Amino acid sequence: MNLIVNMLFLLLQVFQLILLARVLLSWFPNIDRSNPIVRLIYDITEPVLRPIRDMLPPTAGLDLSPLIVFLVITVVMRLLLV
Asked: CA spacing 20 to 30 A to 14: which of 6, 24, 61, 77?
């Protein structure tokens, strides 16, 4: 059981890094989104971000969905450590 928890914890950490990369990429609007690495980052994160983004009301052009995902992942990771 401990192995499964460790693997899930590692998977969540990797997803957080990929999500951070997505946030940083959004700061550079001239990034080529057809780049395979950029496309992979968007393909991995979009299925998680899209439903949250659809539930949130518009907030002056800010996308708060990554922040919510970071918070949820942090809570799950803390629960795994208990």
From this structure: 61
- Whole-angstrom distance, CA of residue 13 vs CA of residue 11: 5
Q: Is 73:16 a contact under the CB 8 Å cutoff?
A: yes
Domain with 25 in it: 2-55+62-81
> H helices of the chain, where?
2-26, 36-55, 65-81
How many structural domains compose the chain? 1
pLDDT over threshold 70, residue 1: no
Identity of the amino acid at 55: M
Q: For residues 64 and 82, what is the distance between their CA atoms, to the nearest angstrom? A: 28
13-43 residue pLDDT tens: 999 999 999 999 999 989 998 999 999 999 9
Type of residue found at 15 = F
